[in-house]
Amino acid sequence: MKILIIDAQGGGIGRQLVMAVRKNVPDAVITAVGTNTAATEAMRKAGADNAATGENAVIVNCRRADVIVGPIGIVIADSLFGEITPAMAVAVGQSSAKRILIPVNHCDNLIAGVADLSMSVLLKDVMVRILTLT
Fold it and tell me: What average pLDDT score do residues 32-52 get?
């Protein structure tokens, strides 16, 4: 299974995702794409098989992934403090991959009906969903 993890800013969520996927789905090929070098480096250090940075990397890797995981902002143009370009959001949205979006209430994007859960609880749910796809 090819899992694409996309993150922005410092890559903290992506780093945690890479470590969780590596632990729970050891056969997965993890590609980490950061919107900036700090996010990419954090995910690479966490154990991603492949790592790249920027808009084109998101576009290309969305075509190759079986599963895309990241904060919900990856499907909203100009979100994550402007780090998600319209082309990135379109690439994620139009991908044939399954998308597992983490409901993070930040950057002026508030998700109604979703409790503010801790990141550890959210990551456990992500892993349950990935494991049902394997």
Answer: 98
